[in-house]
From TrEMBL:
<dbReference type="InterPro" id="IPR003812">
    <property type="entry name" value="Fido"/>
</dbReference>
<dbReference type="Pfam" id="PF02661">
    <property type="entry name" value="Fic"/>
</dbReference>
<keyword id="KW-0547">Nucleotide-binding</keyword>
<dbReference type="InterPro" id="IPR036597">
    <property type="entry name" value="Fido-like_dom_sf"/>
</dbReference>
<dbReference type="InterPro" id="IPR040198">
    <property type="entry name" value="Fido_containing"/>
</dbReference>
<feature type="binding site">
    <location>
        <begin position="179"/>
        <end position="186"/>
    </location>
    <ligand>
        <name>ATP</name>
    </ligand>
</feature>
<feature type="site" description="Important for autoinhibition of adenylyltransferase activity">
    <location>
        <position position="47"/>
    </location>
</feature>
<dbReference type="GO" id="GO:0005524">
    <property type="term" value="F:ATP binding"/>
</dbReference>
<keyword id="KW-0067">ATP-binding</keyword>
<feature type="active site">
    <location>
        <position position="175"/>
    </location>
</feature>
<protein>
    <recommendedName>
        <fullName>Fido domain-containing protein</fullName>
    </recommendedName>
</protein>
<feature type="domain" description="Fido">
    <location>
        <begin position="96"/>
        <end position="233"/>
    </location>
</feature>
<feature type="binding site">
    <location>
        <begin position="211"/>
        <end position="212"/>
    </location>
    <ligand>
        <name>ATP</name>
    </ligand>
</feature>
């Protein structure tokens, strides 16, 4: 059970950020570019991409980096396209759906493994370093239907930040795809935050051990507090960053 006072600071900061809106065009552009870079770099680095932050920036600008693989380049370009798609979803106020999840996954994996891009896995997988074993392939359709049903019902009773964290936990526990489930889950987490007027957060590569431990604990014991707390911390930090930049522009 998550104590509701864990969200008190977030609620206050969210109100403060809302009071500062609409943000200036320059502020929005600056924040968007920096967060997109950090989000892309860290999400890929967690999964083993060896491009540095600066190299990721260069690739996002359309320049190739010598000595690095095509896959590493595609992971950066694809992640950016997936973020642009999230922005379209929010702009168009599209409801959360299985079709939407498959589209996000397709964007992340296209050109890397086209056979499985946007398609559920047809084989059993294991999560490296985790005790949790994802469901067998024949159960995926049922589990994803349950996920969408949960989102439409019980999830709506949760604080938006807790709901975003739970979307990540449940999705990555199902692990419906052969590859890039982690990147897809972090995109879904931020989609939920952004839908509700929160800035996207960055799960940092430097904190990946804490991140993985909290996820595995949630999957093996049903105790979600550690992971929700991690998301709360990152949300608080990002709200501070947005508010600070806005105040400095006055």
């Amino acid at each position: 059970m998550i104590e509701k006072n864990i969200f008190d600071a977030i609620n206050q900061k969210k109100l403060k950020l809302d009071e500062l809106r609409p943000l200036s065009e320059e502020t929005v552009k600056s924040l968007r570019e920096s967060v997109l870079l950090e989000w892309t770099y860290n999400s890929n680095a967690i999964e083993g991409n060896i491009l540095t932050l600066l190299e990721t920036k260069v690739v996002l600008e359309g320049i190739t980096v010598g000595g690095k693989s095509l896959r590493e380049h595609l992971e950066v370009v694809n992640h950016k396209e997936a973020i642009l798609y999230l922005e379209d979803i929010i702009r168009n106020k599209e409801p959360f759906s299985e079709w939407q999840i498959k589209n996000i996954h397709h964007l992340v994996l296209k050109g890397i493994n086209d056979k499985y891009a946007g398609n559920y896995r047809d084989q059993q997988v294991m999560i490296s370093g985790a005790q949790h074993l994802p469901p067998a392939p024949f159960l995926l359709k049922e589990k994803m239907n349950e996920f969408i049903e949960w989102y439409s019902t019980k999830a709506q009773e949760l604080h938006p930040v807790e709901r975003a964290a739970m979307v990540h936990i449940i999705f990555v526990g199902i692990h419906p795809f052969v590859d890039v489930n982690g990147r897809t889950s972090r995109l879904l987490l931020n989609l939920e935050l952004m839908k509700n007027g929160y800035p996207p957060i960055v799960i940092k590569n430097a904190n990946r051990l804490e991140y993985y431990s909290a996820l595995d604990k949630a999957h093996t014991t049903g105790e979600n507090f550690d992971f929700v707390s991690l998301v709360v911390k990152e949300t608080n930090d990002m709200l501070d960053r947005y508010i600070s930049l806005c105040n400095n522009n006055f």
